[in-house]
Every structure is written in structure tokens, then in C-alpha cells.
Amino acid sequence: MKTLHLVHASNGGPVSTVKMMAITSTWMGESSCWRTLSGPSRLQLMGCRSPTIRAVLEGKQKQSSSSSLLLFSNALYIQQRAIGPRQYAPKGFREAAGRAPMTFEFGEECNDLAKVAHQTKNYGDAISLYDRALTMRREKYGPIHVKCAATLHNIGRVFLDMREPGAAENALTEAAAIYEEVEGKQSLRYAESLALLALAYTHLNFLKEAEKAFRESIKIFRDVSYNHAANSWLPDNANTTAAAAALTEPQKHPLASAAHALADCAQLFLLQKEEHRAIAFLEEALEIRRFLYSRHNKYRPIIAQTLNKLCEVKKTINDATGAEMCINECLDICIATLGRDAPATAQATSSKAALLAARRQFREARRLYESSCQIYAKALGQDSVLYGMELVKLGRIEELCEAYITAQKTYERGIEILRAALGPQAPQLAEAYTFLASLLIKRQELDRGIQLLHDAVRLRKASNPKDPQLAFLYHKLGDAYAVRRESHAEAYFLLAIEQFRMNATIEPLQRTFLTDVLDDLGLLYLDFHHYTKAERCLREALNIRIEMLGETHATVAYSYSNFALLHLHREEVTECEKMCNLALDMYTKTARSNVLAQADVYTTYGQCCHLQKRYREAIEWHEKALNIRRTRGETCETATAESFNHIARVYISMKQYAQATRYLAEAKKIAFQFTAAFAQYLRQEVTKTEQQIPPMEEWTAEERAASASILSTPPMLTETNTKKEEESIEMPPSDDEMHTTTTKI
């Protein structure tokens, strides 16, 4: 392989190096970018201004040197470079440019064509055309000129859109250096290039360099364009009609670049977990964009885009009111400017649905998710990734609306689309697998649910071995194995605890999720009678809650309830009763008390009274728990059967076997509605109770006489202040739903 070095005629310096393979491929017909020429005359038509060629054309009589000049002319033409990613095939622009003479005027036309190619997302053509324009501008103006800097700035923008921040960094660094040299450090164009360079640094994960560049860029914008007297980016006459009429091309206003820099810097702050600074910068960008674009329908979607981003950030800091105001305005703008069937409208609709779901307005959120799914399907097709991801969100909200069969079908359809579009190893499938697994476990399909959770763990580990979401997956796996009373649930709980501790080093609030895992592990130890280990876990959970949430919080009452259960297992009735009273007292003090958790305390208190042979009190506490579980929860859930079973045992101790048989029948009916794997422990407890009831022949005459009427009527709800409890106690989300509202639905 030989290399041909070309020398510029004016200064003797090297211009470029080309491989002889380019000539060979041209002659063999392998490339449409290079072609042979027919001599110096053709080179002159193409705009070649070499003194050597002009001398040849003036001396036509020297025919003997024509063959050597032909080779030289071919080499001169081959020096034109084709720069840009090779994976982009020409789509018309580059091919047309290759057939035109390479003059300075055509270089300017290439610059205009490149802008069109960029707008139509023909990025490969745009880079090639910008490179031709840059070559001609450097030849005419020299390498240090504002027009060369402008072309380099545009090349950087194209590379950013192509997701090639490394190439963008090179072009933007040179553009910023030229602007700084020619126009000075207070140049707005220097600030624009510096802001884009900072964005490239952000994509390259050079966060310190990005922050430094953003700081310098925004400082220039503030020094030049900020209205310091009014403490605003807007001019004094911003609200006048004359100012609005003057904004015929708002995208070219200097404030437009300032808004871009502020919005991009907000993205950097989000990567640094500084949400409040991001909100401040986004609100400044929104103020500018409202001033520039509010009267131009072509650019109003930029306002909607800023509002949507602001809504997402405000959701992360639990500012539901501010987020709702932003998304409502965003949705109105999208409908007015883009129409109801635009993907941007679907995105805004989805964001509003997520807000409603966080406020537990599940049915209204479901309606909006159905609308966004229809829009995505119509605009992008039913095989698009966005449509598949939206189906997963719809399935989640259908699950929260207790439409389990519909939710499972929606999940499976969304997963099928994502798998077909992205492949079976796509990280986006992990979240969908997690949601579907939770639903399957709830529907007692434990084996399939556990397998999906393992798949989700595998995908997240492949993407990021330290993914924070792994902690939640380990917790769910531990819960699933604990349902079947399998001892290796402990291993997954310990993995979850370790991962949550790692997460807490970055985000301290993760320690609140750690307490849930500690509670579940402690309760697992109770089932296996490891009381010392259980106490250690429950103690750590209580200490973390008091430290982070204070002593008067509903979750502190939950810890007291777990300690009461621990003392009950140890038959320490005095301590058990004390903890029950502490838990109930704390639930009454907290504004958002969980009545289902209170029912657990009532059950523990009833068992404590049963151990002390205070049978009437025990029945009262168990009936209070039963009333809550039947009215607040599902009438057929396992907790209701547990209450029936406990009441039956108290009646057995009182030797009222007819009443015990009636309650036991209800417990047995519920227990055998579930699969054996799901309700194995409950079935064992019901069987133990059944074995404690003697045959009817051993009953007293009074019991046998009363048994006919008692057994014919099922147990009804008692009148133990059920209405008062329902009026005075507000129902909060369950633990699972609370996790759901803190993450993406």
C-alpha cells in the first residue's frame, strides 16, 4: 500500500494524505464518491486555482507533459476528504454535491444544504456537506475566522444529535477557541459554543468540566443579556405589543441561546442529584421561552417540553401541586399546537396520569394511560418501543384498580413488543418483568413470578452490577420465598439489606426502605423461632425509624407492633401488652394511620389476652380485627381467615364448640380457596384448630342443642364501633403502594 503526499502550490506544506486504495476502488467501480477526470480543463471547471494547472492551460503547445499532468490532476482531486461516520449512506445531498464544481460559492451552498440535511436528520450528509463548506472557508478566510467557527459550531451540534459527544467535543473546542480569539471572552457566540461544549462534557460524564464550562457560559449571558435592574432575563418592555411584534425570528434572539444553556445545565444538576438547583434553572429557561415563543405556534412546543421536564423534576421532590400545574399547561400547549394525536401529546398525557396515580386517583389515571397508549399506537405503530413501555404503565395502573386479569394481559402484550423491538436482553424489560412478577405472586403463581424476578435481576446486573433497583428485587424475591416458608428467603433479605446500605451512602432516604426489609427478615426469623436474630433486626429497624422519621410516626407504631409479636412468641405477656398499647397509642397520634396494620395489633392483643385466659377481651380484640379486615381488605384474604381461626381457638378454650366450629368453617373455606403453596401455613394452622375440637358426642347437651341454630348462620360483623373507626381513621396506601408512588408507575 503506497501513500501519496500532496503539496500545496503556494507554501509547499502538506495538504492531506490519501491511500492509493481510493484510486483503485474508483477504477474498479466500487465507490460513487470518487471519479476520474479528463485533464486540467476539467479541474479548472471544478474550481481548482492551482498555479500549476493555470500554467498548463496557458501552454497548450506542450503536449509531451499531458500524461504526467493527468495523473497529478487525479491526485489533486482525490485530496478532497469525505469526513463523517461511514455507517450513514448518502441520501441525495452528498451525491449531488459530488457532481458539482468545488468553488467557494458552492461551498456556501453546501453550508445551506447541510442545514437542511441536519433539519431532516440526514446526519451523515450534514457532516459531509459542512466539511466541504469548512474546507472552502478555511481556504478563503484562513483557519481563525468567525465563519469557520460557525461551521465548526454547527458540526458540533450535528455530532451531539448523532450521540457522538467525543467528536462534538473536538469541533466545539475549536469553535470556542476561535470565537474567544477573534471576538473576545464576552462574545455571545463564544458563550453558545461553550454551552454546547459543556453539554458534550455532560454526555461524556465529565461532570466537573461540564459544570465549569456551563458556569462560564451562563456568566457571559448574564453579563450581556440579563436585566439586572429588574432582576429578570426579560427586557423592560417585555409585555408591550411593540416588543412582541419585534420578535419575528425568536430562535435567533440571544436569549434563546441563554435558555438552552440554562436547560442543559439543569440536566447536569439532575445527574448530580441537585434537584432544587435544576428546578431554579428550568424555571429561568421557562421564563425566557414564554417571552420568546408564546406568540409563535411553531415554537410553542419548546415551552411544552420545558414544562414537561419541570413537571418530572418537581415530582421527584414530591411537589405534586407544582408538577400538576406544569403538566396541565404542557398538555394544553401540545393539544393546541401539535394536535391530540401527536407523540408529544401522548407523553404529556402519560405524565399527567402518573401524577394522578401518585395521588391514588387510579381510575382517572387509567383513563389517561389508555388514551396515551392509543395515541402512541396511532402515531408510531403498535410495534414501537414507546407503545410497549406505555402498555407496561397501563398494566400497572390496571393492577392498582384490581383488574388483575386485564393487567396481566396488558403486561404480557407490552413485554412481547419490547422483546421484539429491543431484544431479549434489553434493560427496559427488567421493570416490566418486576411488575408482572408482583402480579403473578399476588395471583398465587409463585413459580412463574419468582422466575421473572430472577430474569429481572439478571438484566439489571448485566446493565449495571451496582444498580440501586437490585435491592427492591432482592426484597421481592425474599418475600416470595417467605410466602412458601422457604429458609433461603433469608439469603435474599440479606442481599437486599446489603444493597440498601450501599444505596444509602448515596441517597440517605434509602434507609427508610431498609427498615421494611429488616422487619420482614425479623418476622421470618420469628416463624423459624430464631428470637435473638429477630430481635436484632426489629431493633435496628426501630432505631432507624426514630432517627429519620421521629418518634411520632406510623411506621414507628408498626415497629412496636412487631415487638409485641416477638414478646408474644416468647410468651412475655406483660411486655407484649405494653407494646400493643404503645402501638395503638402511636396510631391514634399519627394523621395517616393504617387501619390494616391496626388490625394486626388487635390480633396480637387478642392472642395475648388468650394466653392470660381473659377470653372475653380476647374475643373483643379479635372481632375488632376481623371487622377491619373484612371491610377494609378483601373478604377472602388470608388475614381474614387468620382472624376466624383465632376466634375459633378462643371459643375452644371456653368449651363453646358450636361457636368454634362455625368460625372454623369460615376460616377453612377461605384457606382452601388458595393454592397449597400460597396458603400452606394457614392450612396447617386451621388443621391444628380442627384437631382441638372434640367429636360432637363429647359435647354437652346444651352445646348439641344450640349447635343446629348456631351452625346454620355464618358469623356477622359485630357492632364494636365499626362506623366510628371508619369515620375517624383515614386509610393510607399500603407499603407496596407507597413504594409504587415513590418510583415510576
UniProtKB/TrEMBL annotation:
SUPFAM superfamilies in the record: TPR-like (SSF48452)
Q: Does the keyword Acyltransferase apply?
A: no
Q: Where do the segments described as Disordered lie?
A: 703-745
Q: Which domain of life is it from?
A: Eukaryota
Q: Which UniProt keywords apply?
A: Repeat, TPR repeat
The protein's name is: Uncharacterized protein
InterPro entries noted in UniProt: TPR-like_helical_dom_sf, TPR_rpt
